[in-house]
Amino acid sequence: xxxxxxxxxxxxxxxxxxxxxxxxxxxxxxxxxxxxxxxxxxxxxxxxxxxxxxxxxxxxxxxxxxxxxxxxxxxxxxxxxxxxxxxxxxxxxxxxxxxxxxxxxxxxxxxxxxxxxxxxxxxxxxxxxxxxxxxxxxxxxxxxxxxxxxxxxxxxxxxxxxxxxxxxxxxxxxxxxxxxxxxxxxxxxxxxxxxxxxxxxxxxxxxxxxxxxxxxxxxxxxxxxxxxxxxxxxxxxxxxxxxxxxx
Amino acid sequence: xxxxxxxxxxxxxxxxxxxxxxxxxxxxxxxxxxxxxxxxxxxxxxxxxxxxxxxxxxxxxxxxxxxxxxxxxxxxxxxxxxxxxxxxxxxxxxxxxxxxxxxxxxxxxxxxxxxxxxxxxxxxxxxxxxxxxxxxxxxxxxxxxxxxxxxxxxxxxxxxxxxxxxxxxxxxxxxxxxxxxxxxxxxxxxxxxxxxxxxxxxxxxxxxxxxxxxxxxxxxxxxxxxxxxxxxxxxxxxxxxxxx
Amino acid sequence: xxxxxxxxxxxxxxxxxxxxxxxxxxxxxxxxxxxxxxxxxxxxxxxxxxxxxxxxxxxxxxxxxxxxxxxxxxxxxxxxxxxxxxxxxxxxxxxxxxxxxxxxxxxxxxxxxxxxxxxxxxxxxxxxxxxxxxxxxxxxxxxxxxxxxxxxxxxxxxxxxxxxxxxxxxxxxxxxxxxxxxxxxxxxxxxxxxxxxxxxxxxxxxxxxxxxxxxxxxxxxxxxxxxxxxxxxxxxxxxxxxxxxxxxxxxxxxxxxxxxxxxxxxxxxxxxxxxxxxxxxxxxxxxxxxxxxxxxxxxxxxxxxxxxxxxxxxxxxxxxxxxxxxxxxxxxxxxxxxxxxxxxxxxxxxxxxxxxxxxxxxxxxxxxxxxxxxxxxxxxxxxxxxxxxxxxxxxxxxxxxxxxxxxxxxxxxxxxxxxxxxxxxxxxxxxxxxxxxxxxxxxxxxxxxxxxxxxxxxxxxxxxxxxxxxxxxxxxxxxxxxxxxxxxxxxxxxxxxxxxxxxxxxxxxxxxxxxxxxxxxxxxxxxxxxxxxxxxxxxxxxxxxxxxxxxxxxxxxxxxxxxxxxxxxxxxxxxxxxxxxxxxxxxxxxxxxxxxxxxxxxxxxxxxxxxxxxxxxxxxxxxxxxxxxxxxxxxxxxxxxxxxxxxxxxxxxxxxxxxxxxxxx
Lengths: 247, 244, 665
Ligand SMILES: Cc1cc2nc3c(=O)[nH]c(=O)nc-3n(C[C@H](O)[C@H](O)[C@H](O)COP(=O)(O)OP(=O)(O)OC[C@H]3O[C@@H](n4cnc5c(N)ncnc54)[C@H](O)[C@@H]3O)c2cc1C
Ligand code: HEM
Ligand code: HEM
Ligand code: SF4
Ligand code: F3S
Ligand code: FES
Description:
The structure holds 3 protein chains of 3 kinds. Chain A is α+β, with helices and mostly antiparallel strands. Helix content of chain A is 35%, strand content 14%.
């Protein structure tokens, strides 16, 4: 925005619904606000809440694109709202909550609960019963490159964008989605996790797991952390096929 | 460690779907090219035909070979389609969810899948008809016979549809196949994906053009050729066969 | 009334809270964790730079150990810290990091051979030993003698928090998300849990527990611009304060981080400077060496922040529509390094500034970042005045940071204090002291009081707009209780805040009247709490007439050990009070292992305490004598200030290092 140009008036349409109110039904509401320099959707929504409608619900925590709280559909695409600059959008913006997740109200959805269920199902923690840790001793060694590779997959912020961006899971909600598959890829890579290929197969070697993925690649294209989802799902598919053949 | 038996079915199905798709795609790539031999000359097309009928191996033609080949392809086709059926929306709710999702997301690769789904659905019918014909009347292949079918049995529109469907379906399929299994992906998977996508587009365009040209040629032969004496076999200038 | 009983109620699902939960669980006690947000979204996830632990694996960390880490921490604290606590901490940090490695944090590792690095704007080659290959590596951070800050790329807090939360899943810790603790339930100086509000349904729930832990993180959001997450609103400190019994310590000790981007205040990690990034002024001139020739950009945070502010006041700042700022230049590190080790920084620059930090300079300015103060506790994490109430992590002041914390010491503190406090709580639960005697009727009373407060907010008409009050409070804190402080401004701040507090009793939640999920209601009651917390900060700062660590008074520039070697203790015994009650707690020089000295920045302006000299002489003579006797560093330390006996038994063992191997088993 240059100085001499008048700021744009943003027309923001928000899908509103309060599931706690028996008389409410989903509807679009339009808010018009003046754009400011460097404005993000975080700033825009706060502006609306503070000056237009204090009942507007949404979730921000870190407001820095780190925590994964603020995912929503911006013009139909799932993304982190806090790091979306309005200047990169048209002046007409549509916001809607992520589908599939439990709706708390307006733009606020309960991704956390869904993710917890997923983590519990996939047991996303290091399985190592044999190794008793002695905290005084030197830590176990790990190849530096491997550590980097694991971190690369560990960067997922459980924002749910890949879930909202996946057509498969819209049709079949039991599908574990890219987020779940990526987590398995992460633990599969980790030598500290002692689970066997067969045990992993039990977890994802089915239609709700890796064989349910139809390679729509929405996940890969919307993931705000740019995780290598396509290549990791492919890797797991090969692994799981091998495991099936081996047995 | 648990020692239960793994349920291998999902792995098998997924793999079978891919491998049948791959076979079909390779087959079609050849099919359209062989068929395009008509663009060179009738003679060429004839040679290709009798090649498939085994002439160059046995010195004679056996149209049964084509029947057999078509039967084989038919089986693969059915298996492929049967397995693919799993991926179709099972009910109205799923259909609506996918529709809403696709329209909202405006995401290219999701569209590609939708295209595959619909072309697959279409081929289920027209592909079957075509294959059935090839199994039933394998000897009716040749520059004139084929042209007759295209024009006078009104198969041109059908072939047109089939051509568009099968080419898009096959190359989108190959593209997805590569990504699905991580085939030859480089260090930067974004780059390899972009390359595959470009290849996919080029192949679709080239193949459709070639197919359309052949189809046009068949139509023109079909219109120009005099079928008043019935559909007679093509007479080659170079190859003389006694037993016809 | 819904009542949930448990052994330990943990308020806060960040690193500290989760570590307490898994710890008590391991000892066989039930735990419930309450959190405003799913634990993985807690602010701990934002820590980019790293965690300090004296592993001494990397070449630049060689020779590091607990002693060096201890000394850095105490100097950093400007002698405000509790030295025994700092000892406990530095001793346990290596254990905590090894535990986390075992639970899945993929710490960045040492790679054998030569590496290029940038130190003081010069390329240098660092050569790593063969035997260290694959062990946890470390980077340089401000205020440390050795490279001690362990990290996972630049997502340290994220990977720690995820590993911790996953561990909690494995241990089947009960986690109640989107629940906000509203008030402590207590009776006769004993805490029995808390009343919490479900942020989705609005329901009030009473959690009755034998021990209650507050691990709610910091209170940075009382400032207008802060690097903190927007949920860091000090509601945990307010819980303690509003009990009327528990106390807060050193609330005025607020840290400003030198490099938050302008204008939004999102942090770029200290790792930028640790890895070799430079601070430049409007002329592109590197000014830090002029002020701090020795440590330059890597002086302690409070020092760098002040120097930057000073430099901008000289007119050397870059003008922008959001006020002055300076530049952070990391282009010299090269694209490869940035894309690998500072990727989060790169993303932030791209998404919020629209620039590429490998090509362009980053606009930065010192911004509120960390709260050294918090709920005052003993070394066990238990409140000094309210039995059964514990606190740890950033929420607490057990007091290892004193008046300034070192970068990387905070996430480290969360896990160390978490693991220690879990043991102390478990010991408490194992004793008969922990029996619960509160009557249900009294529990109900607390719930009703909270309900009445909410009702009043919703039913009030023609009252104050919470947003207006809150914005004013944020402004006051920003302008008058900032990096440089003075008596006049602080007085005004206290007066104005007191006025706001009075007005806040008459807040009216207009338009949005839902009792369920209702952001306006939430903002209303939090604003009331935040103003109280802000008052303790302003008041403490106003009364403390000296400069120590991050607390810097222009009218009292010297550190005054004679008068002010003490902790500020604030409390709110009567709800009708409009100002907090302030008392002080002396810090005993004679018990120090490291008596007060010069921190080594700028000119030494310390007004020393008369006891300092004597203490120093005593320490020196013990050291000299024992060294002559050939005693090792552990024995000497033990003689100077014993602390092992107060540590839980399982954490008393020595730490192994490459150069300090433990005997077999
Ligand atoms: C941008 C940034 C970068 C940082 N980088 C580093 C670094 O590199 N190294 C370092 O050592 N430190 C760093 N820090 C500091 C460090 O991250 C924090 O001090 C530390 O993570 C605090 O952890 P915690 O567990 O105490 O609290 P938090 O992680 O803040 O967790 C607080 C928890 O309490 C819950 N909660 C709050 N109020 C309530 C309530 N009323 N009821 C119920 N639940 C409640 C929240 O939901 C949350 O789960 C950084 C801080 C910031 C702001
Ligand atoms: C009745 C006809 C057909 C139907 C119903 C059908 C359907 C489908 C469907 C739905 C898919 C997507 C599967 C998925 O998303 O996992 C698919 C994939 C594929 N199809 Fe077909 N198809 C048919 C015929 C063909 C033909 C004739 C070819 C070759 C020319 C072909 C080649 C492929 C390929 C290569 C794939 C990708 C394989 C994979 O994803 O594993 N298909 N098909
Ligand atoms: C072995 C089995 C097959 C044989 C022998 C065969 C043979 C032929 C022949 C001879 C033609 C020329 C037209 C005619 O004679 O009618 C033709 C055209 C065509 N076939 Fe097949 N076919 C086979 C399988 C398939 C399959 C499986 C598909 C796709 C599903 C297919 C798609 C087409 C198309 C699209 C055309 C029109 C081509 C054009 O426009 O140039 N065929 N086929
Ligand atoms: S994989 Fe990416 S899109 Fe999916 S939850 Fe994780 S960060 Fe979000
Ligand atoms: S979008 Fe869905 S279908 Fe697979 S490739 Fe991604 S998970
Ligand atoms: S608020 Fe944390 S990612 Fe947007």
